[in-house]
Specification:
alpha/beta, about 35% helix, 5-stranded parallel β-sheet, single chain, about 160 residues
Length: about 160
């Protein structure tokens, strides 16, 4: 017999931690909460139980450096969680940022890129989520993060 889920309980939960100011935390939270309200929340100061921890950084050299420092100094005995890298421009990330992100890829459980979304910049996240491209990006991010294994130290 299949277990029924309570419709008010999200099937997967995420706690988001920004590696730096302007990381794209609000955008990632809105993408994860699209069609799954309440499934993602920003870090509130106490380590969550039963939710996956996700680091968020933008694709600039400073964002990659902040993510690298956070991953290298991860405070929990478990492995560093997934890292979501939000493109902050429609261009390819600068060489230094790409180098830093490659260097820390072995420190994180998964690294997931969110492309630059012009609708978010032009319309705001709530309106942009009505656009097909943004909604598709939200679903893709939700699926990719749902496949990341939960470390025992995170649950």
């Amino acid at each position: 017999m299949r277990e029924r889920r309570n419709p008010t309980t999200p099937p997967v939960g995420w706690v988001l931690i920004g590696a730096h100011g302007g990381a794209g935390l609000t955008t990632v939270a809105a993408l994860l909460n699209h069609a799954r309200p309440g499934s993602a929340a920003e870090f509130s100061g106490s380590w969550p139980t039963g939710r996956r921890i996700v680091l968020v950084a933008n694709s600039s050299a400073n964002g990659a450096q902040a993510a690298a420092q956070m991953a290298a100094n991860w405070p929990l005995p478990s492995s560093c969680p997934a890292l979501v890298v939000v493109a902050d421009t429609p261009f390819r990330a600068p060489p230094l940022a790409r180098y830093r992100l490659r260097a820390i890829s072995r420190l994180v459980t998964a690294m997931i890129a969110v492309p630059y979304l012009p609708a978010v910049r032009n319309l705001g996240i709530e309106t942009a989520l009505q656009a097909q491209t943004t909604a598709r990006t939200a679903r893709r991010l939700q699926r990719r993060l749902a496949r990341v294994p939960v470390d025992e130290g995170q649950s």
